[in-house]
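Lecture notes, part 5. Sequence design as translation. It can be helpful to think of inverse folding as translation between two languages: the language of shapes and the language of residues. The source text, in structure tokens, appears below.
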């Protein structure tokens, strides 16, 4: 991601940080369901990518238990600070970081949760390669939205297209190029959840 891209993202999200939790609170049930469907195990290390105010961290913590590790990353300082104010640092390590270039050791992560971020990535393939770098063999990636692809497109005043980054065909190709294997996609009205596995 270029400095200009990063600056633009921060400029968009910084003024929204204080009220972001109210925006995501309506998604709590779908976030909990997505984490449950990810079938995380106690003791795992899991990343919440582009976390915003880190709404998934309580559910991720419950899934991996006290012996697990949860790291929530976002590139906007105001979002990380809002997450801290909400007490998310009590259940996860909060980290200011660009998801295209993670300050995480290679092969050290068991699972990654990417809620609402993939369509906003400046360079999706680069990001997916970076996520594969930090993932252990067979690690799981969950790409999640609290609404389906049709509803998501409507919010942005578009119609769904095969060119959308989360369209099944395009996502499968991007994942394979980046070292992942698409396992399943649930693209219902009320949510979108794609699960992938890190290749050997």
């Amino acid at each position: 991601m270029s400095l200009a891209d990063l600056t633009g993202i921060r400029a968009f999200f910084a003024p929204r940080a204080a009220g972001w939790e109210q925006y995501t609170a309506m998604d709590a049930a779908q976030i909990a369901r997505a984490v449950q469907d990810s079938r995380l195990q106690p003791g795992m290390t899991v990343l919440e990518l582009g976390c915003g105010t880190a709404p998934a961290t309580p559910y991720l913590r419950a899934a991996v238990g006290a012996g697990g590790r949860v790291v929530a990353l976002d590139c906007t300082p105001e979002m990380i600070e809002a997450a801290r104010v909400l007490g998310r640092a009590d259940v996860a390590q909060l980290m200011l970081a660009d998801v295209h270039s993670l300050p995480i050791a290679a092969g050290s992560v068991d699972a990654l949760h990417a809620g609402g971020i993939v369509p906003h990535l400046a360079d999706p393939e680069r990001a997916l390669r970076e996520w594969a770098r930090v993932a252990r063999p067979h690690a799981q990636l969950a790409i999640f939205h609290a609404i389906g692809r049709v509803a998501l497109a409507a919010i942005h005043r578009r119609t769904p297209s095969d060119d959308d980054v989360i369209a099944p065909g395009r996502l499968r190709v991007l994942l394979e190029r980046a070292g992942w294997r698409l396992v399943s996609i649930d693209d219902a009205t009320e949510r979108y959840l794609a699960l992938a596995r890190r290749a050997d």
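The translated text above is only one of many valid answers, since several sequences can fold into similar shapes. The chain has a mean pLDDT of 89.
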